[in-house]
Amino acid sequence: MAQTIGTGDPATLGFDPARLARIADWMQRYIDQGKIPGAQTLIARRGQVAYCECAGQRDVERALPWQRDTIARFYSMTKPITSTALMMLYEQALVSLDDPVDAFIPEFAERHVLWPGAKSITEVEPAETRMTLRHLMTHTSGLTYRFQPGLLAETYRETGVDFSVREGNLAETVKRLAALPLGFEPGSRWNYSVSTDVLGRVVEVISGQPLDRFFADHILGPLGMGDTFFGVPEAKQDRLGAHYNRTDDDGMKLTEDGPGTGFRADRVTQFSGGGGLLSTADDYLRFAEMQRRGGELDGVRILGPRTMRLMASNHLPGDLASMGQKVWAEVSFEGIGFGLGGWVMLDPARAQTLGSPGDFGWGGMASTVYWVDPAEEMVVIFLTQLSPSSSYPIRKELRALVYSALTD
């Protein structure tokens, strides 16, 4: 049974209840316009839930309401959990951030890099820099995603490098990936990629456990996250929300995996550390609260506080915009850095959004997002199930709604 964090009085926790009520109106507008099926916003402050509201439906075709225990595809919100797993091994002195990836996955030795403007995947030269675990954690590895533009992504598609397929084998997919060149020298640019999937394989190699087992034994189980998994148990299938894609007329269309049959626990054999987890808002809150509290929750310590601070620090020489990524989804990357597994707010004024220096988090492909704000002692989680995440300015709007409701 998943454990929940207690609820407090919003006013006592420093919120204007009338302003918080704007969030439900905002969610309902998107739903009434037919842009998203349903949504949920959860805000916790000082260890208590100040706001949790659901709106719309988790499954439009079956007329099932979005409820507090709705299970959603978290996609890339898996990445902070995989990064935490690696840092748990780091704390045991089993790995260092500057260790080369090929020390754990030999196929990554002797990397080659595509020439600038290459027209063929064979137009390469030897890499000057060995790819390290830090490169993987910061998405500066030279890898890419199959949905990105360019020759390398096209080659991923042609050669079956696909970590989103739930049936398969993580080790074999990583080997297919390692046979291909890099898009750029490791460390020279930021490019969102399958880096965290490779990191998940590193966790498997070091620990000797499949990634799902490592998560269950060392993170999800200890934190009481009983509704978080790579495959949904049969008894919980009905709680899984359907998944939709945006259409050209700003509507939405049910995707093939809408009913969730592909996410059945008995069908998932490839565990994507970059995007494979499903969860609920209350479950993920337990993970985020652990982060906010410096690596500990309810007497269970996952990471040391200094390790948590290291993860939530900017590991780039500047902001993401200076590393070649001006915008991601609908969010400007001016004034935003990147830590070990997620964004780090450097300067809200430059980012042109409400927030605090040092707030950190990440989002997922189905327009989900979470962040932790240590300065405000706050965690925010937003769930829906619409891809792509760039469809609407949901994340920027949610920040305005949340921070403008604070009164202290």
Structure, described:
By secondary structure, the chain is α+β, with helices and mostly antiparallel strands. Helix content is 27%, strand content 17%. It has two domains: 17-80 and 224-403, Beta-lactamase (3-Layer(aba) Sandwich), CATH 3.40.710.10; 84-211, 3-Layer(aba) Sandwich (Beta-lactamase), CATH 3.40.710.10. The protein has eleven helices and 19 strands. Helix 2 packs parallel to helix 6. The protein is globular and about 60 Å long. The mean pLDDT is 95.
Write the layout of secondary structure elements.
Blueprint lengths: L16 H16 L5 E8 L2 E12 L4 E2 L6 E2 L5 H13 L20 E3 L9 E3 L6 H6 L12 H9 L10 H9 L16 H13 L3 H10 L23 E3 L5 E3 L23 E2 L1 H12 L3 E2 L2 E2 L3 H7 L15 E2 L2 E2 L3 E3 L4 E3 L2 H4 L8 E4 L5 E5 L4 E6 L2 E2 L6 H10 L5
Parallel strand pairs: 7-19
Antiparallel strand pairs: 1-2, 1-18, 2-3, 4-9, 5-6, 7-8, 10-11, 12-13, 14-15, 15-16, 16-17, 17-18
